[in-house]
Amino acid sequence: MRLASVRARLALWNTAVLALLLVLLAAGAYAFVLETSRARTDSVVRDAMTDLQYQLVAERPQHATTREAAQEVLQELQFRHITFFVYDSAGALVASSLPRARASRHEPPEAAFDATRLGRLIAADWPTRSRAVSLPDPEGGYRAVTIGVQMPDGRFVVGAAASLHEEEETLAAARLAMLVTIPVALLLASLGGWLLARRSLQPMIIMREHAARIGASNLSDRLPVSNPGDEVGQLAAVINDLLARLELAFARQRQFMEDASHELRTPVAVIQHEASLALSRPGRNAGEYEEALTIVRDAGRRMRRMVDDLFMLARADAGEIELRRAPLYLDDLVAEVARNVRTLAEERGVSVALALAEESPFTGDDELLHRLVLNLLDNAIKYSPPGTAISLRLTRAAEGYRLEVSDTGPGIPLEVQPHLFERFVRADAARTRDESHPAGAGLGLSIARWIAEAHGGRLTLERSSAEGSTFVLVLPG
After folding, report:
1. What is the pTM of this model?
2. Where does 291-346 show beta strands of DSSP type E?
3. d(CA 157, CA 111)
4. Residues of 22-42 as b/e, b for ≥16 C-beta within 10 angstroms?
Protein backbone atom coordinates (compact mmCIF):
# COMPACT_ATOMS: atom_id res chain seq x y z
CA MET A 1 0.00 0.00 0.00
CA ARG A 2 1.43 3.36 -1.04
CA LEU A 3 1.64 6.12 1.53
CA ALA A 4 -0.29 9.11 0.26
CA SER A 5 1.09 11.58 2.79
CA VAL A 6 4.37 13.26 1.94
CA ARG A 7 5.02 13.66 5.65
CA ALA A 8 4.66 9.90 6.17
CA ARG A 9 6.98 9.14 3.25
CA LEU A 10 9.58 11.63 4.47
CA ALA A 11 9.44 10.22 7.99
CA LEU A 12 9.67 6.65 6.65
CA TRP A 13 12.63 7.47 4.41
CA ASN A 14 14.34 9.32 7.25
CA THR A 15 13.86 6.32 9.54
CA ALA A 16 15.04 3.85 6.87
CA VAL A 17 18.18 5.84 6.09
CA LEU A 18 18.93 6.35 9.77
CA ALA A 19 18.36 2.64 10.45
CA LEU A 20 20.84 1.74 7.72
CA LEU A 21 23.38 4.21 9.07
CA LEU A 22 22.94 3.01 12.65
CA VAL A 23 23.25 -0.65 11.65
CA LEU A 24 26.37 0.06 9.62
CA LEU A 25 27.82 2.18 12.42
CA ALA A 26 27.01 -0.44 15.04
CA ALA A 27 28.45 -3.23 12.89
CA GLY A 28 31.59 -1.20 12.25
CA ALA A 29 31.98 -0.30 15.93
CA TYR A 30 31.40 -3.91 16.99
CA ALA A 31 33.92 -5.19 14.45
CA PHE A 32 36.45 -2.58 15.61
CA VAL A 33 35.97 -3.46 19.30
CA LEU A 34 36.19 -7.18 18.51
CA GLU A 35 39.32 -6.78 16.42
CA THR A 36 40.97 -4.46 18.95
CA SER A 37 40.15 -6.77 21.85
CA ARG A 38 41.36 -9.81 19.93
CA ALA A 39 44.59 -8.06 18.94
CA ARG A 40 45.21 -7.00 22.55
CA THR A 41 44.57 -10.56 23.76
CA ASP A 42 46.92 -11.99 21.11
CA SER A 43 49.62 -9.53 22.11
CA VAL A 44 49.38 -10.44 25.81
CA VAL A 45 49.31 -14.18 25.09
CA ARG A 46 52.23 -13.93 22.63
CA ASP A 47 54.34 -12.08 25.20
CA ALA A 48 53.56 -14.74 27.80
CA MET A 49 54.45 -17.50 25.32
CA THR A 50 57.73 -15.75 24.49
CA ASP A 51 58.63 -15.59 28.18
CA LEU A 52 57.92 -19.33 28.49
CA GLN A 53 60.06 -20.06 25.43
CA TYR A 54 63.05 -18.09 26.69
CA GLN A 55 62.88 -19.52 30.21
CA LEU A 56 62.48 -23.07 28.91
CA VAL A 57 65.51 -22.72 26.67
CA ALA A 58 67.52 -21.21 29.54
CA GLU A 59 66.42 -23.89 32.05
CA ARG A 60 66.93 -26.90 29.77
CA PRO A 61 70.75 -27.36 30.32
CA GLN A 62 70.16 -27.75 34.03
CA HIS A 63 67.83 -30.78 33.64
CA ALA A 64 68.12 -34.20 32.09
CA THR A 65 64.97 -33.89 29.98
CA THR A 66 62.85 -31.16 28.53
CA ARG A 67 59.85 -32.46 30.49
CA GLU A 68 61.66 -31.80 33.79
CA ALA A 69 62.77 -28.36 32.64
CA ALA A 70 59.23 -27.50 31.53
CA GLN A 71 57.70 -28.58 34.81
CA GLU A 72 60.27 -26.52 36.72
CA VAL A 73 59.63 -23.44 34.62
CA LEU A 74 55.85 -23.73 34.84
CA GLN A 75 55.99 -23.89 38.62
CA GLU A 76 57.65 -20.47 38.67
CA LEU A 77 55.91 -18.79 35.72
CA GLN A 78 52.52 -17.43 36.70
CA PHE A 79 50.28 -15.03 34.70
CA ARG A 80 46.78 -14.04 35.63
CA HIS A 81 44.19 -15.82 33.44
CA ILE A 82 46.97 -17.35 31.29
CA THR A 83 47.43 -21.09 30.85
CA PHE A 84 50.93 -22.28 29.80
CA PHE A 85 51.58 -25.62 28.13
CA VAL A 86 54.30 -27.69 26.53
CA TYR A 87 53.59 -30.42 23.97
CA ASP A 88 55.83 -32.87 22.22
CA SER A 89 55.80 -33.17 18.42
CA ALA A 90 53.10 -35.88 18.59
CA GLY A 91 50.72 -33.51 20.34
CA ALA A 92 51.02 -35.16 23.79
CA LEU A 93 50.90 -32.75 26.73
CA VAL A 94 54.29 -32.64 28.47
CA ALA A 95 53.55 -29.99 31.08
CA SER A 96 50.89 -27.37 31.77
CA SER A 97 50.05 -24.67 34.22
CA LEU A 98 46.73 -23.47 35.53
CA PRO A 99 46.11 -19.78 36.36
CA ARG A 100 46.81 -18.80 39.93
CA ALA A 101 44.07 -18.99 42.55
CA ARG A 102 41.45 -16.29 42.52
CA ALA A 103 42.42 -13.16 44.41
CA SER A 104 38.91 -12.90 45.83
CA ARG A 105 35.67 -14.78 45.77
CA HIS A 106 34.25 -12.13 43.43
CA GLU A 107 36.74 -13.10 40.70
CA PRO A 108 35.22 -15.60 38.21
CA PRO A 109 36.79 -19.11 38.18
CA GLU A 110 38.85 -20.13 35.15
CA ALA A 111 37.22 -22.78 33.03
CA ALA A 112 39.11 -25.92 32.18
CA PHE A 113 41.44 -25.54 29.24
CA ASP A 114 40.87 -28.17 26.52
CA ALA A 115 44.46 -29.32 26.10
CA THR A 116 43.51 -32.41 24.07
CA ARG A 117 41.95 -30.36 21.25
CA LEU A 118 45.00 -28.15 20.96
CA GLY A 119 47.24 -31.24 21.01
CA ARG A 120 45.43 -32.63 18.01
CA LEU A 121 46.01 -29.39 16.14
CA ILE A 122 49.72 -29.49 16.98
CA ALA A 123 50.05 -33.13 15.91
CA ALA A 124 48.44 -32.30 12.59
CA ASP A 125 50.60 -29.24 11.89
CA TRP A 126 53.77 -28.64 13.95
CA PRO A 127 54.20 -24.84 14.12
CA THR A 128 57.51 -23.54 12.79
CA ARG A 129 56.51 -19.99 13.60
CA SER A 130 54.21 -18.46 16.17
CA ARG A 131 50.59 -19.16 15.39
CA ALA A 132 47.39 -17.93 17.03
CA VAL A 133 44.34 -20.22 17.09
CA SER A 134 40.89 -20.00 18.64
CA LEU A 135 39.45 -22.82 20.71
CA PRO A 136 35.69 -22.21 21.04
CA ASP A 137 33.50 -23.38 23.87
CA PRO A 138 29.96 -22.43 25.01
CA GLU A 139 31.28 -19.66 27.24
CA GLY A 140 33.46 -17.88 24.70
CA GLY A 141 36.45 -20.15 24.21
CA TYR A 142 40.21 -19.54 24.42
CA ARG A 143 42.80 -17.79 22.36
CA ALA A 144 46.07 -19.72 22.13
CA VAL A 145 49.49 -18.83 20.65
CA THR A 146 52.00 -21.63 19.94
CA ILE A 147 55.48 -21.99 18.50
CA GLY A 148 57.77 -24.95 17.83
CA VAL A 149 61.08 -25.23 19.74
CA GLN A 150 63.94 -27.59 18.91
CA MET A 151 65.41 -29.14 22.07
CA PRO A 152 68.30 -31.62 22.51
CA ASP A 153 65.89 -34.45 23.14
CA GLY A 154 63.44 -33.61 20.32
CA ARG A 155 60.95 -31.10 19.04
CA PHE A 156 58.46 -29.50 21.38
CA VAL A 157 55.72 -26.92 21.20
CA VAL A 158 55.37 -24.21 23.81
CA GLY A 159 52.45 -21.91 24.08
CA ALA A 160 50.01 -19.91 26.15
CA ALA A 161 46.23 -19.55 26.13
CA ALA A 162 43.93 -16.89 27.55
CA SER A 163 40.27 -17.22 28.32
CA LEU A 164 37.85 -15.18 26.14
CA HIS A 165 34.98 -15.55 28.59
CA GLU A 166 35.19 -12.02 29.99
CA GLU A 167 35.68 -10.61 26.50
CA GLU A 168 32.60 -12.48 25.31
CA GLU A 169 30.60 -11.11 28.24
CA THR A 170 31.68 -7.59 27.31
CA LEU A 171 30.79 -8.14 23.66
CA ALA A 172 27.43 -9.66 24.65
CA ALA A 173 26.72 -6.58 26.75
CA ALA A 174 27.66 -4.39 23.78
CA ARG A 175 25.35 -6.35 21.48
CA LEU A 176 22.52 -6.05 23.97
CA ALA A 177 23.11 -2.30 24.28
CA MET A 178 23.00 -1.96 20.49
CA LEU A 179 19.82 -4.05 20.25
CA VAL A 180 18.17 -1.76 22.80
CA THR A 181 19.53 1.64 21.77
CA ILE A 182 19.08 1.26 18.00
CA PRO A 183 15.28 0.64 18.11
CA VAL A 184 14.88 3.43 20.68
CA ALA A 185 16.95 5.77 18.50
CA LEU A 186 14.91 4.83 15.44
CA LEU A 187 11.66 5.40 17.30
CA LEU A 188 12.81 8.83 18.46
CA ALA A 189 14.19 9.62 14.98
CA SER A 190 10.95 8.60 13.26
CA LEU A 191 8.95 10.75 15.67
CA GLY A 192 11.36 13.65 15.16
CA GLY A 193 11.28 13.14 11.39
CA TRP A 194 7.49 13.19 11.41
CA LEU A 195 7.42 16.41 13.46
CA LEU A 196 10.14 17.98 11.31
CA ALA A 197 8.38 17.00 8.08
CA ARG A 198 5.10 18.33 9.45
CA ARG A 199 6.70 21.62 10.41
CA SER A 200 8.59 21.90 7.11
CA LEU A 201 5.50 21.11 5.02
CA GLN A 202 3.14 23.31 7.00
CA PRO A 203 3.65 26.25 4.60
CA MET A 204 2.73 23.95 1.70
CA ILE A 205 -0.45 22.88 3.49
CA ILE A 206 -1.36 26.54 3.94
CA MET A 207 -0.55 27.18 0.27
CA ARG A 208 -2.74 24.23 -0.76
CA GLU A 209 -5.70 25.45 1.26
CA HIS A 210 -5.25 29.00 -0.06
CA ALA A 211 -4.86 27.81 -3.67
CA ALA A 212 -8.07 25.75 -3.38
CA ARG A 213 -9.98 28.99 -2.75
CA ILE A 214 -8.60 30.77 -5.83
CA GLY A 215 -10.84 30.77 -8.88
CA ALA A 216 -11.66 32.87 -11.91
CA SER A 217 -13.47 35.39 -9.73
CA ASN A 218 -10.54 36.08 -7.38
CA LEU A 219 -7.41 35.61 -9.47
CA SER A 220 -5.94 38.68 -7.79
CA ASP A 221 -5.33 36.61 -4.63
CA ARG A 222 -1.81 35.30 -4.07
CA LEU A 223 -0.31 32.49 -2.06
CA PRO A 224 1.33 33.42 1.26
CA VAL A 225 5.15 33.32 1.22
CA SER A 226 6.51 32.56 4.69
CA ASN A 227 10.19 32.44 3.74
CA PRO A 228 11.17 33.72 0.27
CA GLY A 229 14.65 32.22 0.59
CA ASP A 230 13.78 28.52 0.90
CA GLU A 231 12.46 26.10 -1.71
CA VAL A 232 8.84 26.35 -0.51
CA GLY A 233 8.98 30.14 -0.67
CA GLN A 234 10.48 30.01 -4.15
CA LEU A 235 7.72 27.60 -5.24
CA ALA A 236 5.10 29.98 -3.85
CA ALA A 237 6.75 32.87 -5.73
CA VAL A 238 6.66 30.88 -9.00
CA ILE A 239 2.99 30.00 -8.46
CA ASN A 240 2.22 33.64 -7.68
CA ASP A 241 3.91 34.66 -10.92
CA LEU A 242 1.80 32.07 -12.73
CA LEU A 243 -1.35 33.46 -11.09
CA ALA A 244 -0.32 36.97 -12.15
CA ARG A 245 0.07 35.80 -15.75
CA LEU A 246 -3.26 34.00 -15.59
CA GLU A 247 -4.92 37.09 -14.17
CA LEU A 248 -3.46 39.18 -16.97
CA ALA A 249 -4.54 36.60 -19.55
CA PHE A 250 -8.08 36.50 -18.13
CA ALA A 251 -8.21 40.30 -18.10
CA ARG A 252 -7.06 40.42 -21.71
CA GLN A 253 -9.57 37.75 -22.65
CA ARG A 254 -12.39 39.65 -20.98
CA GLN A 255 -11.29 42.86 -22.65
CA PHE A 256 -10.96 41.05 -25.95
CA MET A 257 -14.48 39.65 -25.67
CA GLU A 258 -15.87 43.02 -24.68
CA ASP A 259 -14.11 44.77 -27.55
CA ALA A 260 -15.11 42.08 -30.04
CA SER A 261 -18.71 42.25 -28.86
CA HIS A 262 -18.65 46.02 -29.12
CA GLU A 263 -17.16 45.97 -32.61
CA LEU A 264 -19.56 43.31 -33.87
CA ARG A 265 -22.57 45.07 -32.38
CA THR A 266 -22.29 47.97 -34.82
CA PRO A 267 -22.48 46.03 -38.13
CA VAL A 268 -25.15 43.73 -36.69
CA ALA A 269 -27.19 46.76 -35.65
CA VAL A 270 -26.74 48.31 -39.11
CA ILE A 271 -27.88 45.13 -40.85
CA GLN A 272 -30.86 44.76 -38.55
CA HIS A 273 -31.83 48.42 -38.91
CA GLU A 274 -31.62 48.46 -42.70
CA ALA A 275 -33.49 45.19 -43.03
CA SER A 276 -36.24 46.35 -40.67
CA LEU A 277 -36.48 49.71 -42.44
CA ALA A 278 -36.73 48.08 -45.86
CA LEU A 279 -39.46 45.72 -44.70
CA SER A 280 -41.45 48.28 -42.73
CA ARG A 281 -42.51 50.36 -45.75
CA PRO A 282 -44.10 48.33 -48.55
CA GLY A 283 -43.99 49.59 -52.09
CA ARG A 284 -40.44 50.98 -51.98
CA ASN A 285 -38.76 51.35 -55.33
CA ALA A 286 -35.80 49.32 -56.59
CA GLY A 287 -33.32 52.12 -55.88
CA GLU A 288 -34.22 52.22 -52.20
CA TYR A 289 -33.92 48.45 -51.91
CA GLU A 290 -30.59 48.56 -53.71
CA GLU A 291 -29.30 51.20 -51.32
CA ALA A 292 -30.41 49.17 -48.29
CA LEU A 293 -28.81 46.00 -49.65
CA THR A 294 -25.58 47.87 -50.35
CA ILE A 295 -25.44 49.04 -46.75
CA VAL A 296 -26.17 45.50 -45.54
CA ARG A 297 -23.44 44.12 -47.86
CA ASP A 298 -20.81 46.59 -46.60
CA ALA A 299 -21.72 45.85 -43.00
CA GLY A 300 -21.51 42.12 -43.71
CA ARG A 301 -18.10 42.56 -45.34
CA ARG A 302 -16.83 44.44 -42.32
CA MET A 303 -18.22 41.77 -40.02
CA ARG A 304 -16.70 39.00 -42.14
CA ARG A 305 -13.28 40.65 -42.11
CA MET A 306 -13.47 41.21 -38.36
CA VAL A 307 -14.40 37.58 -37.72
CA ASP A 308 -11.56 36.40 -39.96
CA ASP A 309 -9.10 38.61 -38.08
CA LEU A 310 -10.36 37.40 -34.71
CA PHE A 311 -10.12 33.78 -35.83
CA MET A 312 -6.58 34.32 -37.07
CA LEU A 313 -5.47 35.96 -33.82
CA ALA A 314 -7.07 33.18 -31.79
CA ARG A 315 -5.21 30.54 -33.83
CA ALA A 316 -1.99 32.52 -33.50
CA ASP A 317 -2.38 32.70 -29.72
CA ALA A 318 -2.95 28.95 -29.60
CA GLY A 319 0.10 28.29 -31.81
CA GLU A 320 -2.02 26.57 -34.46
CA ILE A 321 -0.77 28.62 -37.43
CA GLU A 322 2.18 26.95 -39.12
CA LEU A 323 4.22 29.10 -41.47
CA ARG A 324 4.49 27.75 -45.00
CA ARG A 325 7.99 28.98 -45.72
CA ALA A 326 9.16 29.12 -49.29
CA PRO A 327 11.76 31.12 -51.26
CA LEU A 328 10.45 34.49 -52.54
CA TYR A 329 11.59 38.01 -53.42
CA LEU A 330 10.48 40.80 -51.11
CA ASP A 331 10.72 43.46 -53.84
CA ASP A 332 8.30 41.51 -56.03
CA LEU A 333 5.93 40.91 -53.09
CA VAL A 334 5.84 44.61 -52.11
CA ALA A 335 5.33 45.69 -55.74
CA GLU A 336 2.46 43.20 -56.13
CA VAL A 337 0.72 44.51 -52.99
CA ALA A 338 1.13 48.09 -54.28
CA ARG A 339 -0.57 47.09 -57.56
CA ASN A 340 -3.42 45.44 -55.65
CA VAL A 341 -4.24 48.64 -53.73
CA ARG A 342 -3.86 50.94 -56.73
CA THR A 343 -7.64 51.17 -57.27
CA LEU A 344 -8.26 51.97 -53.62
CA ALA A 345 -5.52 54.59 -53.66
CA GLU A 346 -6.94 56.21 -56.80
CA GLU A 347 -10.38 56.40 -55.21
CA ARG A 348 -8.81 58.31 -52.34
CA GLY A 349 -6.72 60.46 -54.66
CA VAL A 350 -3.52 59.06 -53.15
CA SER A 351 -0.46 57.89 -55.06
CA VAL A 352 2.03 55.21 -54.05
CA ALA A 353 5.75 55.81 -54.60
CA LEU A 354 8.01 52.75 -54.66
CA ALA A 355 11.75 52.58 -53.98
CA LEU A 356 12.61 48.89 -53.86
CA ALA A 357 15.97 47.19 -53.67
CA GLU A 358 16.20 44.68 -56.49
CA GLU A 359 16.96 41.02 -55.93
CA SER A 360 15.77 40.75 -52.34
CA PRO A 361 15.57 37.00 -51.71
CA PHE A 362 13.84 35.84 -48.57
CA THR A 363 12.32 32.63 -47.17
CA GLY A 364 8.92 33.06 -45.60
CA ASP A 365 5.16 32.61 -45.87
CA ASP A 366 4.11 34.50 -49.00
CA GLU A 367 0.44 34.79 -47.98
CA LEU A 368 1.14 36.12 -44.47
CA LEU A 369 3.80 38.57 -45.64
CA HIS A 370 1.39 39.76 -48.33
CA ARG A 371 -1.20 40.42 -45.63
CA LEU A 372 1.32 42.26 -43.45
CA VAL A 373 2.29 44.73 -46.19
CA LEU A 374 -1.37 45.07 -47.24
CA ASN A 375 -2.38 46.05 -43.69
CA LEU A 376 0.32 48.71 -43.56
CA LEU A 377 -0.62 50.12 -46.96
CA ASP A 378 -4.33 50.00 -46.17
CA ASN A 379 -3.82 52.05 -43.01
CA ALA A 380 -1.63 54.56 -44.84
CA ILE A 381 -4.27 55.02 -47.57
CA LYS A 382 -7.08 55.41 -45.03
CA TYR A 383 -5.39 58.27 -43.21
CA SER A 384 -3.67 60.09 -46.08
CA PRO A 385 -5.39 63.24 -47.40
CA PRO A 386 -6.30 63.33 -51.12
CA GLY A 387 -3.53 64.59 -53.39
CA THR A 388 -0.73 63.19 -51.20
CA ALA A 389 1.68 60.32 -51.75
CA ILE A 390 2.53 57.21 -49.76
CA SER A 391 6.15 56.08 -49.78
CA LEU A 392 7.27 52.43 -49.77
CA ARG A 393 11.03 52.03 -49.40
CA LEU A 394 12.74 48.61 -49.25
CA THR A 395 16.46 48.61 -48.52
CA ARG A 396 19.19 46.23 -47.44
CA ALA A 397 20.77 46.92 -44.03
CA ALA A 398 23.19 45.22 -41.68
CA GLU A 399 20.30 43.80 -39.69
CA GLY A 400 18.50 42.49 -42.80
CA TYR A 401 15.72 43.96 -44.95
CA ARG A 402 14.12 47.26 -43.95
CA LEU A 403 10.72 48.26 -45.32
CA GLU A 404 9.49 51.79 -44.56
CA VAL A 405 5.84 52.73 -45.10
CA SER A 406 5.31 56.49 -44.75
CA ASP A 407 2.11 58.53 -45.07
CA THR A 408 1.29 62.24 -44.76
CA GLY A 409 -1.66 61.87 -42.41
CA PRO A 410 -2.33 63.85 -39.23
CA GLY A 411 -0.20 61.55 -37.06
CA ILE A 412 -1.03 59.39 -34.05
CA PRO A 413 -1.63 60.90 -30.61
CA LEU A 414 1.16 60.36 -28.09
CA GLU A 415 -1.17 58.67 -25.61
CA VAL A 416 -2.18 56.10 -28.25
CA GLN A 417 1.30 55.26 -29.58
CA PRO A 418 2.38 52.91 -26.72
CA HIS A 419 -0.79 50.84 -27.29
CA LEU A 420 -0.93 51.09 -31.06
CA PHE A 421 -0.19 47.39 -31.70
CA GLU A 422 -2.68 46.15 -29.13
CA ARG A 423 -5.98 44.69 -30.28
CA PHE A 424 -8.97 46.98 -30.90
CA VAL A 425 -6.83 50.08 -30.48
CA ARG A 426 -7.56 52.80 -33.05
CA ALA A 427 -6.56 56.42 -33.43
CA ASP A 428 -9.66 57.40 -35.41
CA ALA A 429 -10.44 60.33 -33.15
CA ALA A 430 -7.30 62.15 -34.28
CA ARG A 431 -6.68 60.73 -37.77
CA THR A 432 -9.17 61.86 -40.37
CA ARG A 433 -10.61 59.40 -42.83
CA ASP A 434 -13.14 59.45 -45.61
CA GLU A 435 -16.45 58.11 -44.35
CA SER A 436 -16.75 56.15 -47.58
CA HIS A 437 -13.92 53.96 -46.39
CA PRO A 438 -15.21 51.52 -43.74
CA ALA A 439 -13.70 51.79 -40.28
CA GLY A 440 -11.43 49.03 -39.13
CA ALA A 441 -11.67 47.08 -35.89
CA GLY A 442 -8.18 47.88 -34.69
CA LEU A 443 -6.81 44.39 -35.43
CA GLY A 444 -4.69 45.02 -38.52
CA LEU A 445 -1.55 46.23 -36.76
CA SER A 446 -1.78 43.43 -34.15
CA ILE A 447 -1.87 40.88 -36.97
CA ALA A 448 0.95 42.64 -38.82
CA ARG A 449 3.24 42.62 -35.77
CA TRP A 450 2.52 38.93 -35.12
CA ILE A 451 3.43 38.05 -38.71
CA ALA A 452 6.66 40.04 -38.43
CA GLU A 453 7.66 38.33 -35.18
CA ALA A 454 6.73 34.90 -36.57
CA HIS A 455 9.32 35.52 -39.32
CA GLY A 456 11.97 36.56 -36.81
CA GLY A 457 11.53 40.28 -37.51
CA ARG A 458 9.93 43.28 -35.86
CA LEU A 459 7.41 45.98 -36.72
CA THR A 460 7.64 49.39 -35.06
CA LEU A 461 6.33 52.93 -35.36
CA GLU A 462 9.45 54.93 -36.14
CA ARG A 463 7.92 58.40 -36.13
CA SER A 464 4.52 60.08 -35.97
CA SER A 465 3.78 63.79 -36.11
CA ALA A 466 1.42 66.26 -37.74
CA GLU A 467 3.33 65.70 -41.02
CA GLY A 468 2.64 61.96 -41.08
CA SER A 469 3.71 58.61 -39.72
CA THR A 470 6.33 56.01 -40.67
CA PHE A 471 6.11 52.31 -39.88
CA VAL A 472 9.28 50.20 -40.20
CA LEU A 473 9.35 46.47 -40.85
CA VAL A 474 12.70 44.72 -40.31
CA LEU A 475 13.18 41.14 -41.50
CA PRO A 476 16.36 39.06 -41.12
CA GLY A 477 18.37 38.94 -44.33
Report:
1. 0.49
2. 325-329
3. 22
4. beeebeeeeeeeeeebeeebb
pLDDT at residue 435 above 70?
no
Nearest C-alpha neighbor of 376 from the set 365, 392, 356: 392
Nearest alpha carbon to residue 137 among 115, 122, 170? 115
β-pairing verdict for 131-135 and 142-151: antiparallel
CA torsion 74-77-78-81 (nearest 10°) is -70
Greater confidence, 79 or 92?
A: 92
Euclidean distance between CA atoms 302 and 294, whole angstroms:
12
pLDDT at 364 over 70: yes
> Residue 218: enclosing H or E segment and its boundaries?
none
Q: What is the pLDDT of residue 434?
A: 46
Q: What is the pLDDT of residue 255?
A: 67
- The answer to whether the 6-172 and 322-475 domains have the same CATH topology is no
- The DSSP secondary-structure symbol of 468 reads E
The Cβ-side half-sphere exposure at 429, using a 13 Å CA radius, reads 5
Of residues 444, 325, 454, the one with CA closest to residue 383 = 444
Q: How confident is the model at residue 363 (pLDDT cuts 50, 70, 90)?
A: very high
What pLDDT is attached to residue 394?
92
CATH number belonging to the domain at 231-316, selected among 3.20.20.70, 1.10.287.130, 1.10.20.10, 3.40.50.1980: 1.10.287.130
Long-range contacts of 59-67 (CB under 8 A, 24+ apart): 60/151, 60/152, 65/153, 66/94, 66/151, 66/152, 66/153, 66/154, 66/156, 67/94, 67/95
Give 428's contacts (C-beta < 8 A, 6+ positions apart).
439
- Do residues 393 and 408 touch, judged by C-beta distance below 8 A? no
pLDDT at 450 over 80: yes
User: 3.40.1710.10, 3.20.20.100, 3.40.190.10, 3.30.565.10: which CATH number matches 322-475?
Assistant: 3.30.565.10
Q: Does domain 6-172 have CATH number 3.40.50.10320?
A: no
What is the distance between the alpha carbons of residues 301 and 134, in angstroms, rounded to a whole number? 107
Specify whether the CB–CB gap between 225 and 207 falls below 8 A. Answer: no
